[in-house]
Amino acid sequence: MRRRVRNIGIIGAVEDAAVEVGAGRLTLDAIAVRARVSRERPLFYFPGKEALLYSVLDRRFKKTGGSRQERRAILSEGPENEITACVLSSIEREYRTQKLPVALLAATADDPRLLLRYSEKYRRFLEEFRGQGLCFKGASTIMLVVKGVKLMEPLSLIPLTSESESGIIEEIIAFSKGGMRD
Q: What is the residue extent of each domain of the chain?
């Protein structure tokens, strides 16, 4: 149990450091300071920087999946509501790590292999949308819009207010319910 708690603390420290200094410039020192452990301690739990970044990405996918299940439980049954739960869980904010997607994307410039591990997860994500009756173009469009918003907002390329964000989410959901069906 202590090992799991320590892992979570280290992964949180990696997220914080990646947001502050950038995932590409992530160092064991930066992680250790934020996790309040010795410089060598993260390597006790993770074999290297790549494993640390994979753990951050895995944690983000798990959080989104958990949020999606919570949203699904609130909504009624039906294919449109499955897509709605997926969109809402993918686009919700976590202010502490809001800039993390940008930092992780920048890290892929140094190590493109980070993307390879997740291409299968995104393929499954598209297939789930397609299983709800959306054609490939519709599923891809929704995914691109959701991920685009997640990347552009932290870069301040699209200044969103709560009202405009709600409007964008409503448009994405309306599109998923009415557009581009198989």
A: 2-178
Of 128-132, 141-145, 178-182, the range with the highest mean pLDDT is 141-145
Using CA atoms, how far apart are residues 180 and 132, in angstroms rounded to an integer? 11
Phi and psi at 118, nearest 5°, equal -100, -5
CATH number of 2-178: 1.10.357.10
Both tokens of residue 51? 């494993």
Residue 79 near residue 133 (C-beta atoms within 8 A): yes
Rounded to 10 deg, the angle between the 113-131 and 136-152 helix axes is 130
- Structural tokens at position 128: 């789930």
The Cα–Cα gap between 60 and 18 comes to: 14
Looking at residue 3, what is its pLDDT? 56
The DSSP H or E segment spanning 172 is helix 162-178
Type of residue at 167? G
Least confident of 99-113, 128-142, 161-175: 99-113
Q: Could you tell me the CA-to-CA distances from 172 to 2, 88, 94, 164 in Å, in that order? A: 42, 10, 20, 12
Q: Which residue has 């499954």 as its token pair?
A: 124
**Sign of the C-alpha dihedral, residues 9, 11, 16, 22?**
positive
Angle at the Cα of 100 from the Cα atoms of 99 and 102, rounded to 5 degrees: 70
